[in-house]
Structure formats: structure tokens, C-alpha cells
Amino acid sequence: MSRSVKRLSDYQPPGFTIDSTDLTFELDATHTVVTAVLELRRLDPQLTELSLDGQQLQLLSLHYNDKLLAANEFDCTSQQLRLKVTEDTFRLTIRTQINPLANTALEGLYYANGSFCSQCEAEGFRRITYYLDRPDVLSVFRTTIIADTAHYPYLLSNGNKVEQRKLDNGQTLVCWQDPFPKPSYLFALVAGDFDLLRGDYQTRSGRMVALDFFVEKGQGGKAAFALDALKRSMRWDEQRFGLEYDLDTYMVVAVDFFNMGAMENKGLNVFNSKYVLVSEDTATDTDFFNVESIIGHEYFHNWTGNRVTCRDWFQLSLKEGLTVFRDQEFSRDMGSATVNRIHAVQVIRTAQFAEDASPMAHPIRPQQVMEMNNFYTVTVYDKGAEVIRMLHTLLGEAGFQAGMRLYFERHDGQAVTCDDFVQAMQDANHYDLSAFRLWYQQSGTPELTMQRHYEPQQQRLTLRLNQRTAATADQPDKAALVLPVRYQLLDESGNKSGLFVMQEHNETLVFDGVSAQALPVMLEDFSAPVRLKHDYSEQELLRIAMEASNGFARWDALQSCWMLWLDQAMHQNNDFRLPDAFFELYQQLLKLPLDDKALTAELLKVPEYHVFAENFQQIPVDAILSAIHSFRQQISQRLAPELKACYQQHSVVAVEYNEMNVGIRALKNRCLDYLALHGQPAETLLLQQYNSASNMTDKLAVLSACLHSAHPAFFGLMQQFATEWQHDVLVLDKWFSLHAAQPSAQVFEQITLLCQHPKFSWQNPNRVRAVFHAFAMQNPGQFHRMDGRGYQLLTDTLLKLDPINPQVSARLVTPLLSWQRFDLERQALMKAALHRLSAQPGISDDLYEKVSKALANE
Ligand code: TRP
Ligand code: ZN
């Protein structure tokens, strides 16, 4: 194994490029033969040796121009193919054999569920043939696929289909040509039998585009929403960014075996089926939301990622941060803007802040990487999107769009860096962004402290702001960042709002002519990805929660209240009672919900474990869990009549997925979640909703309400659910997750049973995640047990999974890495688990990189 670290500072431009790539696949589950004809060109005349990447390939033959090379004329190791080169342009013909069926890593070309599917990002193409497998080598691809017609009626690849014919041996040959030069990571091949849902789209300039969705047989009906979401994405990108699609066909394939959410391969997206297949009776409102957002994300990549791509993988945020920003903006225009922002901020405050505080801390542009797959992170994606959002805040919509236009004008068809992007923004706006660029280099979460000082005579309010970023595992020293601070001043004499751009460690902001009661709401809409420390009292926070015109500010003030109350609950053991003013606010919300019902539902929610946990350096697991329990109990008891009334008032909702219905369901089910705590008397209500529900959102809400309240109806309903849905794996995944999140010790036997379930498979990432991600992330009580059983279960799982699928095992290990955040007893148990992993012979690079970092400064 290589175990070598690659550094951004070592970047060298490619010495050769590949002008055209002609691939022929003779598909066979265990013996696929790939013939690659590469037209190469030497860029650096000094070079006399060519080195191609390759992994787990069996080389059958190699031609240099027309000459068959003998074994002693090149050097072939397990990672590379090297040969001497004398000419400036030449052709290589490489025949390799691969075994897609044995490929359980789901990287490269794999065979699962009766079809062939490829996944090449980041470095999977080298598992298909020897190649310059790096994003700054752009080539025109022509792909010929030959396969058995009966089993694989659809043979797909990037671009336009230029030929299709039946061969006389029961096989079909199809040939695809992609006119746009692209790096190898955007290559895709799919072969199989599918249901096909077709649509079309007329672009702004009047061109017709065929939209083809290929899904598992029998599931065609469930792709309609995704097809529609694609049309909305295409329209939105034209209207907001002026960007139009560039090929005649756009294909989406949904597969059940997939390592991540989806992949933006040029003209042929491949999706995890859970992000395509939805219908009201099988998918929740959240599932619908995710489908729309991911369909948008992959579509938006066509410009931000494909037309302009990354120079090297350290620049991943160039395409991912920007594309997440774009998909967030799209979602915000499609649904509740405030709630979307709340959810995006939750991701930063929980997962991203946790990553910054972990041994895996890295800037949005990482400086060193062992396994690239480990850097598809919330930092690169979601913090990357926040960095783009800050640019948008600084430059405004018009300035930002001018920057985008210049970026495409300069770089269409190129592989570029994050710096190139910022430079385009800078030049289009004549706005100096040199200090801003530090966001790309510096990891860690800045802490912004605000202190108020009021002078009654002058009616002057002074805010002292201080920023400080603590050292992270990867970087000891931190400098001051550019922080766009949006604020709103709540004052009887009307609200002032504005933007303050903080640049130094310490700055002051002065408001004149304001009353003593004026309240500054800082960091509105989370205008910078920082932790805000303020000096508000509970009373002041509740005032913001009631009075602020901005929904996000109201929610955020309540979040701060919850932290105060958690703190008090921890110091007063179980005697803490939530204040009356809080109940009055909740009463008000229940009686008169805001127009935005989804926002009301958010405001009525007690934060989850992870939200509380991220505010501590040492996470008091048990205290948090018992405080949450007590908060929920108090709400359900004090507000029982209001909860019931609100529930009843919103119990009838049309099934269709739209903003209003989603909001009403969210509100109703929030009430139900509290009502379930009433024990036996709630049973009728729960069963009634379960049995009458016409949609999965409402059914699942009953199950999770039962789970959260430890209601005895849980097991009966779970059994009923299993019988109803045993044929549908995506629905069954929800059932797996609910079982794994069960907060009692029974969960261990339960998980053993789940793994024996006929539909469970260690090869399928969706199944494995449904059980084990849910266990490790949604069951903190059992995962963090003091007897270590939770850590042990996860470790056993990782040891089993790593040889099958390292990408998935390296993702699942995350909660163990942060051992330093827990008490000494738990620390010892978690370290023991990490040592067990690191002692395992043959552990993957993926897992090794993370485990060794976690153990580095033990
Ligand atoms: N580029 C993909 C996206 O963000 C994500 C991705 C990277 C991916 N590597 C992958 C997806 C491996 C599946 C498997 O849309
Ligand atoms: Zn992406």
C-alpha cells in the first residue's frame, strides 16, 4: 500500500496530455475487456518518460503507435505503467481486463443488481484503464460499448449516441461521442435493463433537449418528480445565472448501489436511487426536498465543475462549494427560504464545526491529502458554500453575477484553481479580495465575541467585536479573517440594518441616536461561518425571538436561549423549570402559527443532541440527553391543550408536496412528537394517524414520535410497517434506521437481527448506512455507553466493511475520531477502538488516514 501524502505545494502541470480517448468496452460481469486508444501529446519537451496511473488492472497488451511492445519495453507496477517516449505526438493502444463483479468498492466499473455502472470521481478511472487520471488533462471521449442485448438493452455513456447496431452473436454495439473535452473523472458508463421515463426541455434559446431517466424496472412512476425538478433546475439556472444546457440529451440513471448521493458525469448523471425515486406513499417531504436539491446540484455542475473544472483535487471546493451555494439558492427559491437557511446553518454548526474541532480539520482548500475520497467533506462542500455566500454578500447579486460571467469568459473549457475564481470576482468588481483569500487557506472556526456598551447621554451604543480562531489539528497559527457581519438593530424608533465588514482582530461599531432598549441582532442569516459569543440576557433573547422581523434571527435567538437553559439545567440537576416567558412564546406560536408553518415548526423544536453537543469542548453526553428529555416533558405537559388544538387544526392536509403542505405537516407532526409523551392516552392519536396516513411523512412521523417518547406502540407499528414495505428497499432503510436509533440496550440484539434480514447486504452502502450511520449518529445514548459496547459494535462493523468498501467505512468512522471531546473514561474506550482499527493488517488508505490522524497526538 502506498500510504503516501500528496501536497498542494508539489503541484506540477502535466508533462503530457491526451487529445483524444477512444474506449471500447466488451462487457462481461467478471471479464470485461477495455481497449483504450489514446492520442498523446508531449507538453514538456524535456520529458522522456510517460507514467500512466492504473489500479487493479490486468494488462493484456500495449501498442506504441502500431508496434506491439514486449514486456521489457515498459514497466508495469500495481499503480503505474511507465514507458520511454521519443516523439511529441504518439498513439497508445492499451488493452486491459477488469472484474466488475469483484469490485465491491463501487469505484471504477462495477457490476451490481444486474447492471454495470461506473464511478470515476475522484480517482476511479484508473481502475478502468491506464490513464493520466488527473483533472487537468482534458480529452475528447468516444466510447463504444458491446454487450449482450437481452441482459443489457441500454448501453449508455457521455455525450451523443452516434451509432447503434446489433451484432450477429446476440450482442449490441453502441457508440457515444462527447464533443466537450473533459477530465477522466467525468467519464461514465452504464449498461443494464431499466424503466425509462422520458421528457424534454426547450432551452431559453429554443433548442430541444431530451431528458431521459433510467431507473430500476417497475420504478418508472417514481421518477416523475425528479424529472420535473430537473426542468425547474434548467429554467432556474437560465434565469438566475444566465446558463444554458449544452448537449442534446441529459440522462440520469438511478442505482441502488452507490457510495454517495450522486455524480455529475457529463450528460450522464448517476444517482443513488434514494435521490431520484420518490412518491408520496414511499417518501417523506425531506426525501422530496433532497431529490430536488441534488438533481439541481448535479445539473448545476454542468457549468460549475464540468465546463470549468478543477486543476487538481486540492481545488475541489472550486466546484463543490460553488455548486452547493447554487443548489442552496435554488432550494431557497423553490421553498421556505428561512427554513432552508436554518437547515444549512445547522449543518455548519454541527457537522462542520465538529470537523474543524477534530483531527481531520482542514481548510476548504486542503493542503495535503492521502486519500482524496476522504476530502469530500462538509468543510469543502458546506463551508466552501459559505465562503461563496460571503463573496455574494460582499459584492451583492449584481456584482457576484458579473464575477461569474467573467469567470466563464476567462475559463470556459479549462481546469482552474480557487484563486482563478476569486480573481474573476475581484476583477469584475474592482474589489480587493486579497485579505478574503485567507478563507481558502485557514482551517478552524472563528469565534466572534461581541460586547455592548451604552452611553445614555449620547444615546450611543458601541459594539466591541473581537475575532479569534483557535488552533486546529492541522494548523497552529491563525490570522484575522474578513467577516461580513450583517446586522439589524431592533429599536422602537424603527429597525436599522446594515453590513459591517470586519477585517481585524478587534473592531468597534458605533450606533448613534439609539435608545437604551435598542438590541443589535448580529450575524443575521449567519452572514459568516463563525461562532458568535454575545452578552444577551434570556429576556433580551426572548425579545428577539418574538419581535425580530427576520425569521432566522428569531430562530437563532431561541437557539441561544436553549443553550442558556441547558446550562441551567445542568447546574440544577433535574429541578430546572423552563421560564414562563418561554411558555408564553410557545403558546403564542401554537395558537397563532406564523404564515410560514415550517418555520413555526422549527421554532417549536427542542434542539437535537448534536446541536447542544457542539457548544462544548468536553461533551457532557448524559447531561445533554437528560436535559433534552426534561425539556420535552415540560413542553408536552404545560402546553398539552395548545398542542392538541394545533395538531387538530392542522391534521387534514392534502398529500401533494408543496411548500404549504410541507409546512403544515411539519407543524402538525411537531405537535404529535410532544403529544406522544403522554403515554397511553396518546395511543389512539398515534394509531389513528398511522392508519389513516396517505403519505410517508405522516406515517414516519408516528414512528419517530413513538421512538422519541419510548412509546410502547412502537414495536407493534414497526412490525406492521415491515410487513407493508418489505418489498421496497428504500422504505425498508427507514425502518432499519428507526430500529438502530432505538435508545435502549435492546438495540444491540436488534442490529444483529437487522444484519440477517434478507434485504440487508454488506455490499450495499444504503443498507449499511441505514443501520450503522443511524446507530452512531442518531443514538448517542447507546453509542456512547459507558461499557463501550457502542464503540465496539461500530469497530466490528468497520473491520468487516473496510475490505468490502473503504469509502463507506472511512465515512462511518467519523464519530470515533473526536475522542478528545469526551470524558476520560469514554476517551479510553474510543482510543482502544481506534487502536483495534489501526492494528488491523491491510486496513485501507481511506481508513488509515483518519485513524492515524486521530491517534497522532494521543
Ligand atoms: N461530485 C459528486 C457531487 O458532489 C460527489 C462525488 C464525489 C461522488 N465522489 C464520489 C459521488 C463518489 C459518488 C461516488 O455531486
Ligand atoms: Zn457536487
In words, what does this structure look like?
The protein has 858 residues and is an alpha+beta fold. Among the domains are: 1-193, tricorn interacting facor f3 domain (Immunoglobulin-like), CATH 2.60.40; 199-307, Zincin-like, CATH 3.30.2010.30; 310-440, Neutral Protease Domain 2 (Neutral Protease, domain 2), CATH 1.10.390. The chain has 26 helices and 31 strands. It has an eight-stranded mixed sheet with strand order 6-5-9-3-2-12-15-14, with no helix packed on it. Strands 17-18-19-21-20 form a five-stranded mixed sheet, with helices on one face. Strands 10-11-16-13 form a four-stranded antiparallel sheet, with no helix packed on it. A hairpin with a 2-residue loop joins strand 10 (108-112) and strand 11. The longest helix is centred in the middle third of the chain and has 34 residues, at 378-411. The protein is globular, with a radius of gyration of 28 Å. The protein starts with 5 loop residues before the first strand and ends with a helix. It is an enzyme of class 3 (hydrolase).
